[in-house]
Amino acid sequence: MTSRFMTGLLLCLTLAAFLLSLMAGKVWIWPMSWAADNADGWIFLELRLPRALLGLCVGAALGLSGAVLQGYLRNPLADPTVLGVSASAALGGVLAIFLGINLVPFGLFGCAMIGAGASILLLLAIGRGGGPIGFILGGMVLSTLAGALTAFVISIAPNPFAASEIINWLMGALTDRLMEDVLTALPFMAIGALLLLTTGRALDALTLGENGAKSLGVDLFRLQWLIVLGVGLSVGASVAVSGVVGFVGLIVPHLIRSFYGEQPSRILVPSALGGAILTLTADSLVRLIPGPGEMRLGIAMAVLGAPFFLLLLLRYRRGPA
Question: What digits encode the pLDDT tens for the residues 36-49?
Fold first, then answer.
């Protein structure tokens, strides 16, 4: 009963956060103006609606990915960035901006997805046979390498304008995204999410350890493939369309477990809903900060997530209460 009530509450909060995202901004657009044949109606259809849809999808993908990774790695500090997929997708996008490919329709998106796909293949090669530890170490290697190459590309940017554009994209935002971006990113995120949702029972079995999971008939190699592909598609598409937005996959599963318990399969869908709520709400709030511009969503999430991560580190260093 409690779980059903919480799920219903999460659905209501997701709807509320989505409606807030449609209305909030330097200029508030109320529902009666959404279909109006004026500036408010144009802003709603061309800017607010795609932005809200992307906030919903990106947040859900990141929250779900974080829940799956923490369940698979049995590490409460795991986050989608531990795979190096976010950093590799960002590297692909940076190369697109540096080479001018971003001027081609969907060039930025395509290069970011190529970066994410390449990281998945490398991760399989590096972590194969190593279990969760090999998975983590492979992700750390990829993340470090992608970060170093990204910094190198920025350092050799031909002019300060190119460097500025790269840095702005890396900071993460849903600003000025169009419906074409939604239609391009959504299939990748949807396929990735579907793959991740199929892992619930296997993650439950994995709480008994790898040998226990095998004795229950879980194919660990297949599970690893599902997670790598699912996280690669969903997180890669998210980074491609919004830049790097961190900590959603870390914060949300921890909050969800307080209400749903520790069983991995029970928190997958709630974590997706929680990720959508957090991302939509944060994106709405950054628009309301006084001034001519708005804070980048990636910066806002870092300001929120870094203290949360520190508290978790201190908590798990002291051990269970």
Answer: 888 888 989 999 99
Per domain, the residue ranges of the chain are 58-288+295-310
| Contact assessment for residue 252 and residue 275, using Cβ atoms and an 8 Å cutoff | yes
Cα–Cα distance measured from residue 185 to residue 252, given in angstroms and rounded to the nearest whole number: 22
pLDDT of amino acid 232: 84
Q: Which of 286, 279, 297, 300 is nearest to 26 (CA)?
A: 286
Q: Among 287, 284, 281, 286, which residue's Cα sits nearest to residue 299?
A: 286
Taking each helix axis as running N to C, give the angle between helix 160-170 and helix 85-99, from 0 to 180 degrees, rounded to the nearest 10. Answer: 150
Residue of 24, 1, 66 lying closest to 245 (CA atoms): 66
In this predicted structure, which of 24-33, 137-146, 177-186, 195-204 has the lowest mean pLDDT?
137-146
User: What length is written for the chain?
Assistant: 321
DSSP string, 176-214: T--HHHHHHHHHHHHHHHHHHHTTHHHHHHHTT-HHHHH
Mean pLDDT of all residues in 40-66: 93
289's enclosing H/E stretch is none
- Which tokens belong to 149? 């190459």
Please state, in angstroms and rounded to a whole number, the distance separating the CA atoms of residues 245 and 63. Answer: 11
User: Per-residue b/e over 60-77, b at no fewer than 16 CB within 10 Å?
Assistant: bbbbbbbbbbbbbbebee
Higher-scoring residue by pLDDT: 255, 102: 255
Cβ contact 267:253 at 8 Å: yes
102-116, 152-166, 264-278, 298-312: range with highest mean pLDDT:
264-278
CATH superfamily to which 58-288+295-310 belongs: ABC transporter involved in vitamin B12 uptake, BtuC (1.10.3470.10)
